[in-house]
Design goal:
6 helices, single chain, 74% helix
Amino acid sequence: MTSKRPASKGPATGLPLAAAVLTGTVALYIALVAFGNITDFDTNREFVRHVLAMDTTFKDDDLMWRAVTSRSLQDTAYLAIITWEVLAAVVLVAATGLWAVGLRNGNRTARARQVATVGLLMVLLLFGAGFLAIGGEWFAMWQSEDWNGVEAATRNFTVAGIALLVTLRSA
């Protein structure tokens, strides 16, 4: 004999819960990255300066015209990165809160999913377009033994991408 039970209103489980946890994890990560860049400003400013200056790449004349050697432009780029990180963190923290409320209220998570999608896309743009495409390829960061963030950017892009897939699948 089989019985049909109504959907449980107990603790959240499955993909919505996984999406909430992953969103919160990426929110924590990007918030800590932004915090670190603000409180230890000079460390990663040097990273950005070296990548944009292309001063530790192979010095190929066909590529070196791309180098940005103006300290003002380098610092502007770094401030833009930090601003983007802060905004992404704020969006993802808000999304995490929306997940918590939505899961508590019987899986009413549509708004959380929307906000998380925006925040995760922001992280994907930062690490995919910003660090992998622009830093890694346009400024040939992959050539540098000292200032190469391709591996870290790939790791961050992958985690945010997985979180986005789970988030979109949780609908």
